[in-house]
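Handout, page 2. Input:
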Amino acid sequence: MHQVAIFASGAGSNAARIIDRFRRHPSIKISLIVCNKPDAGVLEIAAKEHIPSLIIEKEQFFRGDAYVAELQRRNISFIVLAGFLWKVPSKLIQAYSGRIINIHPALLPKYGGKGFYGRLVHEAVIAAKEKESGITIHYVDELYDHGQIIFQAGCLIEPNDTPDTLAQKIHGLEHEHFPRVIEELLTSPGPGSSKDR
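Output:
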């Protein structure tokens, strides 16, 4: 059984879709919600779904053991970042090498890196008059938005799109693809990657 922890900082719409996907899965269980904001909406989702939650604090995350011992105590085998806004410390990356994935609301390597998250990404994409944006699901390494790309899906940007309308399109792609890609990663026999542009 894959015991999965979802790290999230906000309302948790992606977390909700992922939880829904694996509610009765034979080999994948969402076992923990990890959050760095005590008032985040994702914690309400965790409570409603009877999933344990862990509120983490900065000092232990970045200068302590990065909660590695706690995650291992809970038998967490895979970590999904779903709108988690802190950089993952190297201690956690090393402990879970090749077992942490993130979703980014743009087509990496464009519009990634420090400071590119949420609405700021969509504002930059619109300001640059891009014709396309999308999502990237990738493994997490020591650099922001840098790890090996697992999957990408794109959407066209219309001339009248705004950061808000683009955000809606991107959310649609996230909700459609993220749970499925997680399932494929955790149930496929070997390390494969899929790319769909």
